[in-house]
Amino acid sequence: MELADKTILLGLTGGIACYKVAELTRLLIKAGATVQVAMTEAATQFITPVTMQALSGRPVFTSQWDARIANNMPHIDLSREADLIVIAPASTDFLAKLAHGQCDDLLSTLCVARDCPLVAAPAMNRQMWANPATQRNVAQLRADGITLLGPDSGDQACGEIGDGRMLEPEALLEAIIAFFQPKLLAGRHVTITAGPTFEPIDPVRGLTNLSSGKMGFAMARAAAAAGASVHLIAGPTALPTPYGVLRSDVQTAQQMYEAALASAAGADLFIAVAAVADWRVAQVHVSKIKKQDGHDVPHLDFVQNPDILAAVAQRPQAPFCVGFAAESDNLEAHGEQKRRKKGVPLLIGNLGPATFGRDDNEVILFDAHGHTRLPRADKQMLANTLIREIAQRLDAAPRQA
Ligand code: C5P
């Protein structure tokens, strides 16, 4: 319920993408938001107010002259109740009106009358988006502090391909949730490792572990929502890439090491969440090792993988480094030991069996001042809290020479 206590005025303007806003409404409500829908006359040609009322559970407003509001000023009342106005889809015409402060219907008037932030999700044909007049309006809107979400690029309803598609409802929901997060990592470059690694034995077998990647992906999502530019280096996992995050997929510890060292060289912050295999098989078999009945089991030699976190932390001008530690017992003693061994200012400890694959987690923070226990929480909520804790320490830390 990341939008609990938030009221969103969802404004629909004319465009085929209106059908996607039915789904966005459901997602916003599921995330805990109160959704008040207002539509332009053109939007009602694409989706009915009946549908939007049924999905939002509130009467829909389309007219400036709607007498249902006691003082007959829907443009004031509706905008005052909102924490955020979301225009989706935002047509070419509506962007032009917004850029000029024009007020010729309820939605455009309440946008001008608002005292809350406004975000808009453009949706139009690629030529309409590329038109210099639209681009002028977009530049003006940005200068006025309006946030544009998208547009996306790809297939368009008209059959053409290019920029101008509205972002998908799931991406819009992510962007709206992120909009409400304090921008504690604005301007920061963050590298995060996540998930397990997979060390091949032969072409069909390998060594891996039970890490799902959920905690690392939640950290990446929280860091992006806090305004950072995030590079997520992920071991094998089927999790979707968080909105606004750049992702590189790797398989082995060695590949993760190379990707992480290159990425962290330009980063302000490195967060190692991945459960990296400690060993790999010295000689990977090129063909499948055959089982031979009555014969000895195969003998495998192992070599140790590089410690990615320790290697990044030891680099000159290292970013602020944060490690995770999954212990099986005696977390309080092992956590501080591990922090010192890795040479990092902050280590987040958890009990492996109590976190792997689960949606919630309980952690202890170890830093130079001692340790702090955080209560068990959903991994995403916990990640948001951890990003706040990390941002405070990062702001206070001098960059290493
Ligand atoms: O030593 P241990 O595996 O318990 O340390 C855990 C921390 O170190 C995690 O942050 C993990 O991502 C990181 N690590 C690493 N490279 C390794 C092993 C662990 O970056 N080879």
TrEMBL record:
<feature type="region of interest" description="Phosphopantothenate--cysteine ligase">
    <location>
        <begin position="190"/>
        <end position="401"/>
    </location>
</feature>
<keyword id="KW-0436">Ligase</keyword>
<feature type="binding site">
    <location>
        <position position="338"/>
    </location>
    <ligand>
        <name>CTP</name>
    </ligand>
</feature>
<feature type="binding site">
    <location>
        <begin position="306"/>
        <end position="309"/>
    </location>
    <ligand>
        <name>CTP</name>
    </ligand>
</feature>
<dbReference type="GO" id="GO:0004632">
    <property type="term" value="F:phosphopantothenate--cysteine ligase activity"/>
</dbReference>
<dbReference type="InterPro" id="IPR035929">
    <property type="entry name" value="CoaB-like_sf"/>
</dbReference>
<dbReference type="GO" id="GO:0046872">
    <property type="term" value="F:metal ion binding"/>
</dbReference>
<feature type="active site" description="Proton donor">
    <location>
        <position position="158"/>
    </location>
</feature>
<feature type="binding site">
    <location>
        <position position="342"/>
    </location>
    <ligand>
        <name>CTP</name>
    </ligand>
</feature>
<comment type="function">
    <text>Catalyzes two steps in the biosynthesis of coenzyme A. In the first step cysteine is conjugated to 4'-phosphopantothenate to form 4-phosphopantothenoylcysteine, in the latter compound is decarboxylated to form 4'-phosphopantotheine.</text>
</comment>
<comment type="similarity">
    <text>In the N-terminal section; belongs to the HFCD (homo-oligomeric flavin containing Cys decarboxylase) superfamily.</text>
</comment>
<protein>
    <recommendedName>
        <fullName>Coenzyme A biosynthesis bifunctional protein CoaBC</fullName>
        <ecNumber>4.1.1.36</ecNumber>
        <ecNumber>6.3.2.5</ecNumber>
    </recommendedName>
</protein>
<keyword id="KW-0456">Lyase</keyword>
<dbReference type="Pfam" id="PF04127">
    <property type="entry name" value="DFP"/>
</dbReference>
<dbReference type="GO" id="GO:0004633">
    <property type="term" value="F:phosphopantothenoylcysteine decarboxylase activity"/>
</dbReference>
<comment type="pathway">
    <text>Cofactor biosynthesis; coenzyme A biosynthesis; CoA from (R)-pantothenate: step 2/5.</text>
</comment>
<feature type="domain" description="DNA/pantothenate metabolism flavoprotein C-terminal">
    <location>
        <begin position="185"/>
        <end position="392"/>
    </location>
</feature>
<keyword id="KW-0285">Flavoprotein</keyword>
<keyword id="KW-0479">Metal-binding</keyword>
<keyword id="KW-0210">Decarboxylase</keyword>
<feature type="binding site">
    <location>
        <position position="324"/>
    </location>
    <ligand>
        <name>CTP</name>
    </ligand>
</feature>
<keyword id="KW-0460">Magnesium</keyword>
<dbReference type="GO" id="GO:0010181">
    <property type="term" value="F:FMN binding"/>
</dbReference>
<feature type="region of interest" description="Phosphopantothenoylcysteine decarboxylase">
    <location>
        <begin position="1"/>
        <end position="189"/>
    </location>
</feature>
<dbReference type="InterPro" id="IPR007085">
    <property type="entry name" value="DNA/pantothenate-metab_flavo_C"/>
</dbReference>
<dbReference type="InterPro" id="IPR036551">
    <property type="entry name" value="Flavin_trans-like"/>
</dbReference>
<dbReference type="InterPro" id="IPR005252">
    <property type="entry name" value="CoaBC"/>
</dbReference>
<feature type="binding site">
    <location>
        <position position="288"/>
    </location>
    <ligand>
        <name>CTP</name>
    </ligand>
</feature>
<dbReference type="GO" id="GO:0015937">
    <property type="term" value="P:coenzyme A biosynthetic process"/>
</dbReference>
<keyword id="KW-0288">FMN</keyword>
<feature type="domain" description="Flavoprotein">
    <location>
        <begin position="6"/>
        <end position="178"/>
    </location>
</feature>
<dbReference type="InterPro" id="IPR003382">
    <property type="entry name" value="Flavoprotein"/>
</dbReference>
<dbReference type="Pfam" id="PF02441">
    <property type="entry name" value="Flavoprotein"/>
</dbReference>
<keyword id="KW-0511">Multifunctional enzyme</keyword>
<dbReference type="GO" id="GO:0071513">
    <property type="term" value="C:phosphopantothenoylcysteine decarboxylase complex"/>
</dbReference>
<dbReference type="GO" id="GO:0015941">
    <property type="term" value="P:pantothenate catabolic process"/>
</dbReference>
<comment type="function">
    <text>Catalyzes two sequential steps in the biosynthesis of coenzyme A. In the first step cysteine is conjugated to 4'-phosphopantothenate to form 4-phosphopantothenoylcysteine. In the second step the latter compound is decarboxylated to form 4'-phosphopantotheine.</text>
</comment>
<feature type="binding site">
    <location>
        <position position="278"/>
    </location>
    <ligand>
        <name>CTP</name>
    </ligand>
</feature>
<comment type="pathway">
    <text>Cofactor biosynthesis; coenzyme A biosynthesis; CoA from (R)-pantothenate: step 3/5.</text>
</comment>
<comment type="similarity">
    <text>In the C-terminal section; belongs to the PPC synthetase family.</text>
</comment>
